[in-house]
Amino acid sequence: MNKDIHKGGCLCGHVRYETQGQSELTGVCHCRYCQLRTGSAFATLIYFPLDRFEITSGYLRRHEFLSESQKKWQTNFCEKCGSTLFIELEIFDGLIGVEAGTFDPPTFWFDVANEVFIRSKAHFVGDIVTINKDDTFFSYAPKSGENPRLSSSLK
Ligand SMILES: [Zn+2]
Ligand SMILES: [Zn+2]
Questions:
Q1: What is the Cα 68 distance to its own chain's centre?
Q2: Per-residue pLDDT tens digits of the chain, which is 155 residues long
Q3: Residue 17 · residue 7 · CB < 8 Å
Q4: Which ligand has the nearest atom to the CA of 140?
Q5: Can you tell me whether residue 102 is helix, strand or coil?
Q6: Which ligand has the minimum distance to the alpha carbon of residue 82?
Q7: Residues at Cβ < 5 Å from ligand 1 ion
Q8: pLDDT at position 92
Q9: Contact at 8 Å (CB) between 130 and 62?
Q10: How far apart are the CA of 145 and the centre of ligand 2, in A?
Q11: How far is the centre of ligand 1, averaged over its atoms, from the C-alpha of 17 (Å)?
Q12: What is the pTM of this model?
């Protein structure tokens, strides 16, 4: 059981965590929220059930917002250096989406099953090795006009 523990943490070392076992869900996301919250072209998320993810040291701060589909998001980041360690999504209740780049080496120890929001994928990102691909996301259902700044459509 203890064999399958993966540790990770933020850039400054204040926040540390551990996961147990294999992930429930893995994905690369090119949505505008992930681009904005990471400052990068896409996010890589490795989901674990709450009872197999543990913060072992440090304090986090949290930012909550609603997506254009009126679903809740929470981003959880180190109060000192700002690295985002994990997200919690209303649609994946009971799961923690760990930011893949925060695992200790071997950092990218998993395969990625899903690639989503391909419609806003950066043109310079080549083929990503995944099983499933989606132009948006299974639960994508905008309830209101999308703010152009946040919109993941190309227009
Ligand atoms: Zn930190
Ligand atoms: Zn996203």
A1: 17
A2: 457 999 999 999 999 999 999 999 999 999 999 999 999 999 999 999 999 999 999 999 999 999 988 999 999 999 999 999 999 999 999 999 999 999 999 999 999 999 999 999 999 999 999 999 999 998 888 887 778 888 776 55
A3: yes
A4: 2
A5: helix
A6: 1
A7: 10, 12, 14, 78, 80-81
A8: 95
A9: no
A10: 18
A11: 12
A12: 0.93
Which ligand is the nearest neighbour of the Cα of 119? 2
Interval between CA 8 and ligand 1 midpoint (Å):
11
How many residues can be counted in the chain? 155
Looking at residue 79, the DSSP 8-state letter turns out to be T
The pair of three-digit structure tokens given for residue 80, joined into one six-digit string? 């000192």
Q: Which ligand is nearest to the CA of 59?
A: 1
Domain ranges (residues) in the chain: 2-133
User: What is the CATH number assigned to the segment(s) 2-133?
Assistant: 2.170.150.70
In this structure, which ligand is nearest to the CA of 97?
2
